[in-house]
Amino acid sequence: MNDDVVLLVDDEKSILNSIERLFDETGLRILKAANADEAMEFVRKENISVLVSDNLMPGMKGIDLLSKVRVISPDIVRILMTAYADLTTAVDAINKGEVFRFIVKPWDDDDLIETIKEGIKRYQIVRTLKRADEATLLSLARTIELKDKYTRGHCDRVAGYALLMADELNLPEETKRDIRYGSWLHDCGKIGIPESILNKNGPLDEEEFEVIKKHPLWGADVARQAQLSEVIINIILHHHERYDGKGYPFGIKGTDIPIEARIVAVADCFDAITTDRSYRKAASGGKGLEIILSMKERNFAPEIVELFISGLKSISCSKDTQCIKDNLNEHGDN
Ligand SMILES: [Fe+2]
Ligand SMILES: [Fe+2]
User: Is the pTM of this model over 0.85?
Assistant: First the structure.
């Protein structure tokens, strides 16, 4: 994290200083600007990872500064600080993708540190994705997995299952490669979800679930920014859509859901069922398949479920399927 630069913008010097002090021990480089003009000066000269701006300042408002920065330097992760009374502006900005997060004043130190650290992680993810070589993508996907201790190995196995179906369809190599990458990255939007929600023991309340439901949008946003292919973006964006239209984020249905996303949805769910989760034990491969079959037409495209069944039957000893076989053997019958 040591090369990262955080730019703080606030017209109150005392605020800039007290935030700077929070990062004393971290080795992060902190820059401070008293207004939008000074901030723009830094944006032009320095490589900034995260920009935190107050909203109400004399001259240009924080929200307008962030929109401007978005245009000239889109990789900089933008965080808005706002008074409680100004909350609608902040929520609006989030929904429009103008800012990554907002912080309500007076802030909680731990929240602020956590939010800025997440911002830096997001900056690094986009940077890494832009390089987009296979080894970097996989190690990134594994880093994301570490956030959720129950999903270790998940992205590898999802890719394995998805490629079984892609093979059955005889898709071109390039598409298969993108399906592999999309499977690895399908949950990369989880970087935006607080750990307290992700690792909660027990059911989520409605508000928490609303946050979870944002991860496809956040993830697709990251992938788009890194200029990844349409196939990869579709997988990230639509892996929670349902065949009957009751999924999220858009509720599109049937063949309106891109085929790569229909494939990964089955792979993702099958792996979730056949591995231990915080709230339940793993089902066997056979039981998992039974559950997938029972969700046909509601959750999953019937033709894709058929492909999955024939794909599973034809598992050979290739590298892609080893992790799948290991998991299925561990959990009994298939
Ligand atoms: Fe997901
Ligand atoms: Fe998943």
Answer: no
